[in-house]
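U., I forgot to send this yesterday:
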Amino acid sequence: MPYVVMVDDNFHYMDEDERYKHGEFADADVAIEHCRQIVDEYLASAYKPGMSAKELWESYVSFGENPFIVSVDAPQARFSAWDYAKERCQVLCCGRSSARASPAAGACGAAAT
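Result:
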């Protein structure tokens, strides 16, 4: 299979002993969807009612899983778990989707930093 989803643990940043293989996929879109599901599962488990996007984002970058795709003899599959998580934090906490809004900035609608 040309697309391998690997997962790092944000809590154990740069510790390859904590890395695991999630799966192998023939299609880049399927691999990306698996990556999204991994991020979504963490965000859903960490989210508490009334939580700000910033709080959820900080939880993700501290404790969430960071999936990435290794392409094997295939075109590169582009996916950034952190970029996707930023977007999802806005959706979960602010009820909207905005590629320009950043939960790292704090309150909903605050400028990206």
